[in-house]
Design goal:
- The structure is a homodimer.
- By secondary structure, chain A is of the alpha+beta class.
- Chain A has one domain: Phosphoribosylformylglycinamidine synthase subunit PurS (Mth169, Chain: A, 2-Layer Sandwich), CATH 3.30.1280.10.
- Chain A is 34% helix and 41% strand.
- The first copy, chain A, is built from two helices and three strands, in the order E-H-E-H-E.
- In chain A, strands 2-1-3 form a three-stranded antiparallel sheet.
- At the A-B interface, strand 1, helix 1, strand 2 and helix 2 of A face strand 1, helix 1, strand 2 and helix 2 of B.
- Strand 2 of chain A pairs antiparallel with strand 2 of chain B.
């Protein structure tokens, strides 16, 4: 079966996010001071071939740990959809 | 009311995504050849103060158009949650 994974990789909440801070500042200059606390991470989509949803979950988790997220500075979460 | 927006900004499907292509290649080297078609974009979270959900939607849409997404190369979608 083919699954589609939607993965979010975000900077840990305890860490500063300088890119997000810069964008929060720009919002004010653009006339959108209502917008606060911008945080910027990665959104990753991928396709995976696996026998079961559980097997796909294990593989995607492995991909996140090995390559997609740096767990010292980031956390990840994902959802799997049957394609 | 305070809302939280979860925004995804992704490269347009018609465009090549060289970063995603590189990661797809690396998956094979990591022993995960089941993973294909990786595409990498941005995930942005922010907080917004607005009277209604409709007003918040308009503001977040404006922020995406003006600053967060480059509509020539990217598309965006978002969801709003009441905080």
């Amino acid at each position: 079966m083919k699954f589609r994974a939607e993965i979010d990789v975000m900077p840990l909440k305890a860490l500063l996010d300088p890119q997000g801070k810069a964008v929060t500042g720009s919002m004010k200059n653009l006339g959108l001071p209502e917008i606060q606390n911008v945080r910027i991470g990665k959104h990753i989509t991928l396709e995976i071939e696996a026998d079961t949803k559980d097997a796909a979950t294990t593989k995607v988790d492995e991909a996140c740990k090995k390559l997609l997220a740096n767990q010292i500075m980031e956390f990840y979460e994902f959802e799997l959809f049957e394609n």
